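I hope you will forgive my troubling you with a question about protein structure. Could you please explain, in whatever detail you think fit, how the structure tokens follow from the sequence? Thank you for your consideration; the sequence and its tokens are set out here.
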Amino acid sequence: MPSRQRMRITADDTVLEHVMTLKKLTGVLLKPIHIDDAKARGLRASLGLDPDESDILAHIEEQRRARWAQFDEFLGLKSNGNTRHVWQRRTKALVAHKFSVEPRGPHWWERSANALAPHYFPGFSIKGSGKKKHGAPREWSDERLCQLFADVEFLKKKTGMSVRKICKVLPRRRGYEKRWGADTSEALRKAYTKANRQRRTLLFQFKLCGAKATIPGNRIDHITAAIRQHALKI
């Protein structure tokens, strides 16, 4: 975001022109409100008691009023006795500053809504040409979990890479694209973690390693058995 941004705020047939520069912000506009600074009031103060919830809320409200007063002074906003109008101007100033929406003309609310919506509702976002489309998340059946666990463990042994690194390269690694090309690295990492956790259960262990490996006393390495059963081994 550029450090200087020209804003025009229209209200009641007047136009406020101001140049916002973040570097010029001073005083309370730069300081967060700390609830630890709240002090007890009235009888609690005279008795030396700690502030209660009402004292904390009063402190927050007092600090907000101080900040709005400085905010108005910074932008040259005047209420002219009309509280509703000053809140409209404050909102327009904030939206203009955050989303570069110039608050002027009859279509300001429409432009503001279009600027705000993509930040909270993914369906309003616009992807550039060539970007992947996002549909419903792929289901992770036991079979797919077994395949992923086996492929990751095989590549760990073959390359010495970490699980995170393998999950990052797996969708585009030669020979593995058909199996994992539609998955993100984060989805693969989470699914691997799930498979690794589930292999402690007997039923999943049976699917992952086969019957022989799950029989006590056979001393068959479960990871080796999983690789043999499910890995592409490329």
In short: Confidence is low (pLDDT under 50) at residues 1-23. The chain is about 50% helix and 5% strand.
